[in-house]
């Protein structure tokens, strides 16, 4: 009998902590998300049914799971921020959020996560936004399967798709970001994993790193952005198996590296970019097994780049393979495949017997006088390139691939 | 004129050189396709070959034909025929037979290789169009040279020099002037410079297709407008047409005044 009493007491005490379902719809007793959050208890689930909810400044200050059924619309009516998460363990799933307010003094976001842990933000569709998902001083969260479609026209009055600021250990996977300023932006954010995202047609960068270390980005596609990926002032970043495509324009790069140290760039494909990789002040980077196909410049080295190594890459049909603006070279090129290599392989070991010089005289001339680009592929240019190849005067004479491959590198 | 055209055309069609020319292109495209195993890459290599070789062969052939058929021309001149129709007929006969060798020689292997199913067909047609234009232009220039010079050796010399100048020396001078005046805005100058040389013009047309990503790297607004839109393509074609019309007109004028 005593045990039974104890059992009942235990159940009564446990009752408040049971997760409950709260449903909201346009005709229910609870018809707004704000009201639902204020009545909910910790660890409750809020189910939002299909409909349009005109709300903004919604603060999620309890560990809740908010799930939308059939993509209910949360319309911020351009008045400001829409959802702000301040509690730990919050899940937001399946909402269609539109009309985030634009401000020049505050970064209004569709969803802002502030100083929280263990959050999950997934299956959202964001449109007509200023900032999309903004993670601020948060950690251990996940941002999965979101679709962010902006309508940015100018850089100064548009925001970023997914922005991380002082946020660590975040997983960003399977997101689709389009037409914003920076697709994904990491500032002071370490140990993040960015995987399988597609970031296209953004005004500035598809993905942007600033002062962020030890991050990995993998299997992403960056297409038709102002510049594909900008990695700046960061250390130990791994860039694996990404695709950089059709980033065209006067200041467009597949990838822009500035002040990057000890990074690893492996298995990426750079296709039809004006500049495949633009490198400035970057040291000890290993470029391995990348494909550079049909770019204007596959790699443009701007200076202050030391002890980088380029090993087993394929340089296919680029207008220029490598461009240097100085005569000093401290980088290693080895065992790459170059389509413009004209040497032979007498001993049939798959490695050309004559070293290859990837820097042409013409690329030096174009660096100096950009208008001369109009003479590209002229017979005269081929002749002067040839004579420079025989006896280098203007290009670094120790810049050689001593073991150029005869057949395309495979891995 | 048509009769003379027909006569020159069939005369050339029977001649060994047309077959050699045809066979050369046939062999070239077969080898390229065989080596590259990729249609679009073969097109790229062909483009490089065409902008150098077609003008050379056009010039040599034009001069050669004129001198070889000189006696026949003199016979025709004795007949009640318009001078312009005699020379235009001969010119068109040469130009058309050369273009045909080019188009068939390149076209047949590519068609067998599956051109119509590939998306390189536009690049390829552009290649053939540019090739034909270059043939028309350089044969006309060659006829002009031959009309001016009675001396065969001199005529050949000038013809080769013309080719050498337009294919190589012009670009060298062009490059020098660009580097010399690099402190000034040069984008207009460089575009005008290309317009003035048919070989450069055809090269630009090809660049617009192939190296567009590199060309868009340059910041000049004029460049961007030229390369970024259909504008460049249109202007280039108009200029090529002008380049055909001018020397042909010159042939007509020269032939009227010339004392045989």
TrEMBL record, chain B:
Coiled-coil annotated spans: none
Q: Which domain of life is it from?
A: Bacteria
Q: Is the keyword Membrane in the record?
A: yes
| Keywords assigned | Membrane, Transmembrane, Transmembrane helix
Q: Where is the chain membrane-spanning? A: 20-36, 42-67, 88-112, 124-148, 160-181, 230-253
Q: What is this protein called?
A: ABC transporter permease
């Amino acid at each position: 009998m005593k045990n039974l009493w104890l059992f009942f007491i235990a159940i009564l005490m446990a009752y408040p902590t049971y997760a409950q379902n709260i449903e909201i719809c346009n005709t229910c007793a609870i018809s707004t998300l704000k009201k639902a959050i204020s009545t909910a208890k910790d660890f409750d689930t809020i189910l939002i049914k299909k409909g349009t909810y005109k709300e903004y400044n919604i603060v999620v200050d309890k560990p809740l799971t908010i799930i939308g059924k059939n993509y209910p619309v949360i319309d911020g009516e351009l008045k400001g921020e829409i959802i702000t998460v301040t509690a730990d363990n919050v899940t937001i799933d399946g909402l269609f959020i539109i009309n985030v307010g634009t401000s020049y003094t505050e970064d209004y976001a569709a969803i802002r996560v502030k100083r929280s842990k263990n959050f999950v933000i997934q299956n959202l569709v964001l449109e007509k936004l200023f900032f999309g998902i903004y993670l601020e001083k948060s950690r251990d969260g996940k941002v999965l399967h979101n679709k962010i479609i902006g309508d940015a026209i100018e850089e100064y009055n548009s925001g970023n798709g997914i922005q991380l600021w002082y946020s660590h250990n975040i997983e960003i996977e399977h997101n689709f970001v389009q037409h914003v300023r920076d697709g994904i932006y990491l500032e002071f954010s370490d140990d993040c994993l960015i995987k399988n995202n597609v970031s296209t047609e953004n005004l500035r960068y598809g993905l942007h790193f600033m002062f962020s270390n030890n991050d990995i980005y993998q299997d992403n596609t960056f297409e038709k952005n102002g510049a594909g990926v900008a990695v700046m002032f960061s250390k130990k970043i791994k860039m694996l198996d990404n695709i950089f495509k059709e980033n065209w324009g006067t200041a467009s790069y597949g990838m822009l590296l500035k002040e990057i140290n000890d990074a690893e760039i492996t298995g990426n494909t750079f296709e039809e970019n004006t500049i495949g990789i633009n490198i400035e002040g970057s040291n000890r980077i290993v470029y391995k097994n990348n494909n550079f196909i049909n770019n204007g410049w596959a790699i443009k080295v701007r200076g202050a780049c030391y002890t980088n190594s380029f090993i087993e890459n394929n340089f296919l049909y680029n207008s220029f393979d490598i461009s240097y603006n100085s005569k000093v070279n401290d980088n290693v090129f080895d065992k790459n495949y170059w389509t413009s290599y004209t040497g032979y392989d007498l001993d049939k070991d798959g490695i050309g017997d004559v070293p290859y010089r990837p820097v042409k005289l013409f690329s030096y001339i174009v660096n100096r006088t950009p208008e001369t680009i109009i003479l590209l592929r002229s017979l005269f240019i081929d002749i002067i390139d040839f004579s420079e190849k025989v006896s280098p005067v203007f290009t670094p004479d120790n810049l050689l691939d001593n073991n150029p491959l005869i057949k395309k590198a495979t891995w | 004129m048509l009769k003379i055209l027909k006569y020159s055309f069939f005369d050339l069609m029977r001649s060994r050189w047309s077959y050699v020319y045809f066979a050369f292109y046939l062999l070239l495209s077969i080898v390229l396709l065989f080596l590259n195993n990729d249609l679009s890459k073969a097109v790229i290599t062909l483009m490089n070959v065409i902008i150098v070789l077609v003008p050379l062969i056009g010039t040599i052939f034009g001069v050669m034909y004129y001198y070889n058929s000189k006696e026949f021309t003199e016979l025709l001149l004795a007949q009640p025929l318009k001078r312009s129709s005699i020379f235009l007929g001969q010119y068109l006969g040469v130009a058309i037979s050369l273009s045909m060798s080019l188009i068939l020689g390149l076209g047949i292997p590519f068609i067998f290789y599956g051109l119509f199913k590939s998306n390189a067909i536009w690049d390829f047609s552009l290649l053939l169009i540019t090739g034909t234009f270059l043939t028309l232009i350089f044969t006309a220039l060659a006829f002009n040279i031959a009309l001016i010079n009675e001396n065969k050796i001199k005529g050949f010399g000038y013809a080769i020099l013309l080719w050498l100048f337009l294919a190589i020396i012009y670009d060298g001078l062009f490059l020098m002037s660009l580097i010399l005046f690099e402190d000034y805005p040069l984008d207009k100058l460089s575009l005008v410079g290309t317009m003035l040389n048919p070989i450069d013009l055809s090269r630009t047309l090809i660049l617009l297709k192939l190296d567009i990503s590199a060309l868009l790297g340059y910041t000049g607004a004029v460049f961007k407008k030229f390369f970024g839109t259909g504008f460049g393509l249109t202007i280039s074609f108009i200029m090529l047409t002008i380049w055909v019309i001018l020397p042909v007109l010159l042939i007509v004028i020269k032939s009227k005044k010339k004392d045989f």
